[in-house]
Amino acid sequence: MGPKRMGGIVLIVVGVVLFMIGLNASESFADQWSEFFTGRFTDKTVWYMIGGMVLAVVGGLLAMVGRR
């Protein structure tokens, strides 16, 4: 397994972990309160979710390219 593929797998794992942290944070009291009044989650929660998705996608692409 090459270094690109290994790095891609690590990025996928980190991305999934960050996304899960964002999901858990969205259920916190502060986020529920913010969503009730503003209709959105807090910025921190949104960035965890977006960052997790981006890292997972980039990791997937690196893992695919690393196969060659």
What's this model, at a glance?
Helix content is 84%, strand content 0%. The protein is mainly α.
Distinctive features:
single chain; 68 residues; mainly alpha
Structure notes:
The chain is mostly helical and 68 residues long. It has one domain (3-65). It has helices at residues 3-26, 29-38, 43-65. Helix 1 packs antiparallel against helix 3. The radius of gyration is 15 Å and the shape is rod-shaped. The chain starts with a helix and ends with a helix.
Helix-strand blueprint:
Elements lengths: L2 H24 L2 H10 L4 H23 L3
Helix pairs in contact: 1-3
What count of domains describes the coordinates? 1
N to C succession of SSEs: HHH
Percent of sequence in beta strands: under 5%
C-alpha geometry: rod-shaped
End-to-end Cα distance: 10 Å
**Computed CA radius of gyration, to the nearest angstrom:** 15 Å
Helix content: over 70%
- Count of helix runs: 3
Q: Write down how many β-strands occur, each being a DSSP E stretch of 2 or more residues.
A: 0
Residue-averaged pLDDT: 90
Uncertain parts = none
The description of the largest β-sheet is: none
SS-based class: mainly alpha
